[in-house]
Structure formats: C-alpha cells, structure tokens
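Hey L., structure's done. Input below.
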Amino acid sequence: MPRPAPARPRNPRPEASAMTHAWLVTGPPGSGRSVAARAFAAALQCTGPTPGCGRCKPCRDVMSGTHPDVVRLATEKLLITMEEVKGLIGEAQRRPWTGHWRVILVEDADRMAERTTNVLLKSIEEPPPQTVWLLCTPSADDVLPTIRSRCRLVTLRVPHPDAVAELLVRRDGADPALAARAARASQSHIGLARHLATDPGAWERRRRLLMSPVSLRSVGDAVLAAADLVDAAESEAKDATVERDARERAALLRALGLEGDARVPPSLRAQVRALEEDQKRRAKRARTDVLDRAMIDLLSFYRDVLATQMGSDVERVNVDLEDELDQVAATTGPEQSLARIAAIEECRARLRSTVSPLLAVEALMVALRPQA
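Output:
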C-alpha cells in the first residue's frame, strides 16, 4: 500500500516573525516548559479552525504521545547518549507522514554532553524544510552558544502561587489554606505543591531537612546529617523505581522465552545486563533529582533569611517557619547567608557531575554549620 503524501505545511516559507526551524523553550522547574513544548507541537499539527484547538485528532494524538510525526525524547538517565541523538537526527531527515511538520522534541536538552551537542548542531542549523526542533532546558545558558544562536528563545515564568493553589483546590480537592501554603513552599512547582498538599508526612520531612543545618554543632554532626540526607534520597528513589524495574525485567525475560526464576543462559545475559545498567542509571538520576529538590528547599530557607536580614518586604517562601527564620536571621549576618547560598549552589553543581553525592553533601553540611 503506497504511503500517503504528507500534507503541505501551512506556510512552507515562513517569515522570521511567524515560524522558524528551531526553538529553545526555557523556564525554571515548575514552569511547564515540556507541556508548553508539546502544546506548541500540537498547534503545528492541528487541523482545527484555530491552531492548537485541542479537539482535533492531531492535537489529541500529540498530547497523548501517539502522533507519528512528533518524536519526543525525555531521558531518565543523567545524560542523553550519543546513540539517542544520532537516532533523532535520522528521524529529523524523514518527511512528515500525515502532519504539517516533522517535530523533534527534546525535553532534557541540558542533559547532553558537549560532544553530543556538537553532533546535533548541523541538523539544527540546516534541517529539512518541514522539520522543526523543539529543545527544552531550564535556562538558555544550559546549551552551547552555537545551539542557542540558531534557536528562537521562548522564556517561561512560573505561575503565581495563587494560581497553583486554585488548581490544587479545583483539581485535587485540597484544603484551600493547605493548598496556598503548599504552593508557596514549592515555589509554584505544581508537582511538588501537589505532593505537599496530599502527602501527610511531606511537611515533617521538609521541616527536618530545613532545620537540620541549624542544629549542627560539629563536623561529626554534619557528616551524620549528610549521610541521613543521602540515605533518605536513595530510599525515595528506590521506592519510585523498584516496582517498575521488576516489571521491566519480567517483561524482558518473557520476551526471551524465560519464565519465573529460570536461569538465564549465557547467550542472553548481555541483554539482561544492558537492562540492569539502564536501570542503575535511571536510579542514579532519580537520586540526583531528589537531592536537587532538597537543595532547592534549602536555598528557599536561606533566601528568606537573607531577605529578612536585608529588610526586604518580599513574601516569604517558608511561611510555616516564621519563628525559625527570625531566629537564624537575628543570630547571623547577610555575609553568612550569602556564603551558605553559594555553598548550596556549589553542591548542586557537584551533584550533577561525577562527584560522590555523599562527599558533596558532607561538604555542604560542614559549610552550613552555625559556627562555620
């Protein structure tokens, strides 16, 4: 059966103000950059009366991830591999099957090594006429200048806490007061706000985290606190991945013709090892993400301390820790708060590198001690 001819794009020679071949969608965690990119991809494929109607079949297919002309890559590992990028480049060379455009959506473009990004450069610079690249990163500085200069930048902002609270009340049935508190504590990150509004133990865990540096009295205390934080992150990451890992292993064994606890023959062990390596990388990414969220919470605490010390009238993030914030602000100076914020940012950078998470968090806790 012959392949149907693809529909022509609505504007095959778009002006610079109307359309371009590569877009860089940026925004902090919680800004919805991936959702915005998918919605843009849906608008490009839309056949409704207005682009992005959300009701036509192409719009629904894009948002559900089943449209044949929208290729999406979102990694659960620390880095996007060279093989994955080469696969995207191959997909970008194909003509659209049914849609107006061939859309390549990379949700974690900041997780590419420099040499991997360089492989992508030529395809972004000179794509086929009906191919559109959509790259998502937390900020424009997270990609190489050569990539950034070839993309149109779309910068998103996080929603207002009141809007997040209203969503939690309307969609999840959260208590309005708790929803408002969760929206502010999560700094408008909808996923984290929902977690705080629906998990009874989330607030106590968060409080222990933020109060941990304040109670440190020695280097030994700092080392123990760091070990507790890393252990908790590993436990949370394991809880999030262990069931999925078991399902994937069982599915692979069935595909290989093995059942139950049957011994894996030597000829098939390479495939099982490859799956286990992927699962280890995913678990490492999950642990890094949990630790990074903890760093963001710590940053919010010392941001509130610094704002209090400077006499700023900005609203506090941690409205449930008013007394503790006032006490820390009164017993330390702005220079110490700035030094602690810098130490947290440095720890975040180390966690994204090859440094041992335990060593990175130990160095942070030593720097956060009250007497440091």
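Strands lie at 22-26, 70-73, 102-106, 131-137, 152-155. The longest helix spans residues 269-309.

-- N.
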